[in-house]
Write a structure and sequence with these properties.
- The strands form 3 sheets. An 8-stranded mixed β-sheet has the order 6-7-5-8-4-9-10-13, sandwiched between helices. A 3-stranded mixed β-sheet has the order 1-2-3, sandwiched between helices.
- It is 33% helix and 18% strand.
- The protein folds into 2 domains: 81 residues, Fe-S cluster assembly (FSCA) (GMP Synthetase, Chain A, domain 3, 2-Layer Sandwich); 251 residues, P-loop containing nucleotide triphosphate hydrolases (Rossmann fold, 3-Layer(aba) Sandwich).
- Helix 2 links the parallel strand 2 and strand 3.
- The C terminus is likely disordered.
- It is of the alpha/beta class.
- The structure holds adenosine-5'-triphosphate.
- Homodimer.
- This is Iron-sulfur cluster carrier protein.
- Keywords: ATP-binding, Hydrolase, Iron, Iron-sulfur, Metal-binding, Nucleotide-binding.
- Belongs to the Mrp/NBP35 ATP-binding proteins family.
Length: 394
């Protein structure tokens, strides 16, 4: 079925003249692999950087036409810049994000980033998302360290501290937020291209997992990841938020780097377990955010220690304290340590994270303390007080 749809999309594209008048985009090899999931088609067009502006309306036109194909409900066509032959190679350039107030634009390569009036607290040259005061990333250098569990409990803790909070699950390869917040329904369209976020425990939430079946293989390619993220960030009716927490995909590859470049981040929180290996990965995460000028607000040590339920004795099974020592060495704030606790796992699995399931527990207090420290770091940073050591790990 989806092969037939891909062929139908290709046939449709072959019948369209590209805006530069040089023939159709398929014969010229400008179309990426086409990925179809849940009736949504994703692909990108690779165009010379100088032509990006001209091809943008063409992308929108393709999106409109593709839905006429049986079984395709919507499409997302991203524009990527093709490097001109012989062009000098430069260090990675951030792909400019969409301008605020212009929903529906795909990623536009080669254009100058624009702040736009009313853009709240832009981080660097990146335009903010209207209505959202600050955006922070929760990231980890490798998978399975408890990044999503930390992100969701932190978001709920920020809310418990009185902030209006949203969470965006950018972990497109393995979205966990629907499970962690027990959200099963699909978000409704807000009319036009916008989506209304779901809500749980006072958090507004958006996840790629809402749009794509958990069973669907996530063979996302770079540009598609980016357009999906941009759409979730800018085409969702977040309303007014004090804070949006972005649960990043694990790792420090190109996709993560581009995300860190694309999203106007006020800062990043790095989650690590105490093991050496995880710390090495955490250091890479740190270096990645530094590379794109995003302040690292601090490191959280997860699964830091274990309290035996029968005796109450504490066991530092993973060599607790590694992250704290590392944070000191790197002159990055240490935000706190979360114990390895069955109840943290159980409440997460039940879709009712510990901060809301057992708000009076000491574990919930641990998360709230970390949230308070993160806010303090953000304020310190906004006041220009954060240390910014130059760290280069290659
Ligand atoms: N402090 C903790 N105590 C006990 N279990 C935990 C703790 N933190 C996370 N877990 C459990 O560890 C597993 C991995 O956590 P989580 O999905 O949050 O990790 P992740 O780093 O986001 O993983 P991935 O990157 O693979 O999505 C989950 O089963 C979660 O419930």
């Amino acid at each position: 079925m989806s092969d037939a749809q891909k062929s139908a999309i290709q046939a449709l594209l072959r019948g369209l003249d590209a805006p530069d008048g040089q023939g159709d985009v398929v014969s010229r090899g400008m179309v990426s692999d086409i990925f179809i999931a849940d009736g949504k088609a994703f692909f990108s067009l690779s165009v010379p950087a100088a032509e990006a502006e001209r091809f943008e309306p063409f992308c929108r036109e393709i999106e409109r036409r593709v839905v006429s194909i049986d079984g395709i409900a919507s499409a997302l066509v991203a524009l990527t810049a093709e490097k001109a032959a012989g062009a000098p190679s430069r260090s990675p350039q951030p792909v400019p994000p969409q301008q605020p107030g212009r929903p529906g634009q795909a990623i536009r390569a080669g254009a100058a980033p624009a702040g736009g009036p009313g853009a709240p607290r832009p981080a660097g040259s990146k335009p903010g998302v209207p209505g959202i005061d600050r955006i922070i990333a929760v990231a980890s250098g490798k998978g399975g360290v408890g990044k999503s569990t930390t992100a969701v409990n932190l978001a709920l803790s920020f809310a418990a501290l009185g902030l209006k909070v949203g969470i965006l699950d950018a972990d497109i390869y393995g979205p966990s937020i629907p499970r962690l917040l027990n959200l099963k329904e699909k978000p409704r369209s807000g009319g036009g291209r916008t989506l209304i976020p779901l809500e749980a425990y006072g958090l507004k939430a958006m996840s790629m997992g809402f749009l794509v079946d958990e069973e669907t293989p996530m063979i996302w390619r770079g540009p598609m990841v980016m357009s999906a993220l941009t759409q979730m960030l800018r085409e969702v009716e977040w309303g007014t938020l004090d804070l949006l927490v972005v649960d990043m995909p694990p790792g420090t590859g190109d996709a993560q780097l581009t995300m860190a470049q694309q999203v106007p981040l006020a800062g990043a929180v790095i989650v690590s377990t105490p093991q050496d290996l995880a710390l090495i990965d955490a250091r890479k995460g740190l270096a990645m955010f530094r590379k794109v000028d995003v302040p690292v607000l601090g490191i959280v040590e997860n699964m830091s220690y274990f309290i035996a339920p029968d005796t109450g004795a504490r066991y530092d099974i993973f060599g607790h304290g590694g992250a704290k020592a590392e944070a000191q060495r790197l002159e990055v704030p240490f935000l706190g340590e979360v114990p390895l606790e069955m109840v943290i796992r159980e409440t997460s699995d039940a879709g009712r994270p510990i901060v809301v399931a057992e708000p009076d527990s000491r574990h919930a207090a641990v998360y709230r303390d970390i949230a308070a420290r993160t806010l303090a770091e953000m304020d310190r940073d906004a006041a220009g007080g954060a240390k910014a050591p130059m760290i280069v790990f290659e």
